[in-house]
Amino acid sequence: MKPLIHILIISFAGILVGCATCSPPTELVSARQAFAHASASPATQLVPAELRKALETLARAEEAFQENPRSPLVRSIAIAATRAAILAETLGATAAMTAATAHANKETPVSQPGIANTRK
Prior knowledge:
It contains 6 helices and no strands. The mean pLDDT is 86. It is elongated and about 70 Å long. The protein is mainly alpha-helical. The chain has a domain at 29-95.
């Protein structure tokens, strides 16, 4: 996944240089930030397929921006990319918490006789 991220970053730099007069819409900037944040989360290890979907959606937004920077389609796809990145990050955090809970439950004794006797 790391080489793919590096390629995407280089592509972003090329897009920015190629369209120096066109600043990206706020939605695209937000999508880039959301993906970068998700890439640094447990999603990378725990839900890589979801992170990949976010990356593919972000790449589509970047392509749309390269083709027509002022197109409303850029904003729409960028919003979808942001949501996909947030979903991947959330699913990764949920998977991490589920694993931690399962581990904690495994460590906790099943029977606690002292507690059971207090309900009489």
